[in-house]
Amino acid sequence: MNFADQEEIAQRMERRRKRQRRDAVWNVLSWIVLFLSGIVVLIVAAIFVNPVLPLNPFPPATLPVLATSPVVTPALSVIPATSTPIILPTATTAPTETVTPNPSPTVSLPTPTSDLDVLYPFVLKSNPIPMSNLVFHPDGDCSWQGIAGQVQDMQGRPVRGLSVHLTGSYNGRAVDMTTLSGAAQAWYGESGFEFELGTTPLDSKDELYLQLADQGMVALSAAVPVETFSACDKNLVLVNFKQVR
Questions:
Q1: What domain range includes position 124?
Q2: DSSP β-ladder status, 145-149 and 163-170
Q3: H or E element, residue 169
């Protein structure tokens, strides 16, 4: 073996040692990576099982605590005698007022001794008056039928803004209409109101009812029956209310 062979062998040994050191470093790094990976896997598994752990860098939002409202027992309020709910009779329900028969073509008033009269601050001023609509609509004709009237206080002054309800049936159909006193003042004065029923005058009795109420839907009068007529000179029925207390 010559000197060149010894030198080459020494170089090979040196390269082998360097490679071994390099491999050892990579092996150590590989083990460190595996160890850290195992720790990460354990942490992820723990967070998956319990997301609220302190290790979770993105913990779920804390839900707000629901406030418990105290149970409130509503107090019963006593309705005064004047706060009587509106009684809207239907076509098949007879009115609760006692009607006195009258042979004349005008509609008779409820019996003055009726218990309902003392419950309401408004009553009829007089018997409903059938007349021709030409009295208030000179440019009209017989092809019209309606109910109109006025509302007055105890001093005879007009009362505006009260609800006027017309319910029942007419010509085979249900009627449920509402207007305000004063809505037809152009024809019937400051507190005038009007309901147009149809274009052909018809006879009807105990089918239509008129009632006053305030803006809170509290009845201010009894439900008054209104009779209609087929004659052209009676195609408008005037119903006037007055305040008595």
A1: 86-243
A2: unpaired
A3: strand 163-170
Number of domains in the chain: 2
Contact 214, 90 (CB under 8 A): no
* Distance between CA atoms of residues 212 and 150, nearest Å: 11
User: Do 135 and 178 fall into the same domain?
Assistant: yes
37 and 96 assigned to the same domain: no
Query: Does 131 share its domain with 234?
Result: yes
Contacts of 188 (CB under 8 A, 6+ apart): 136, 148, 149, 150, 194
Relative to beta strand 236-238, strand 163-170 is: unpaired
pLDDT at residue 19 in the model: 86
Which pTM does this prediction carry? 0.54
The single residue listed with the structure tokens 């005879």 is 156
Query: Which residue type is seen at 142?
Result: C
150 part of a folded domain:
yes
* 213 bridge partner residues: 163, 219
Please indicate, yes or no, whether residues 101 and 203 belong to a single structural domain of this protein. yes
Instruction: Say if residues 168 and 175 touch (Cβ distance below 8 Å).
Output: yes
For 18-72, what is each residue's pLDDT tens digit? Answer: 888 888 888 999 999 999 998 989 888 888 887 777 777 777 766 555 444 454 4
| Residue 48, SS3 per DSSP | helix
**18 C-beta neighbours (distance < 10 Å), count:** 10
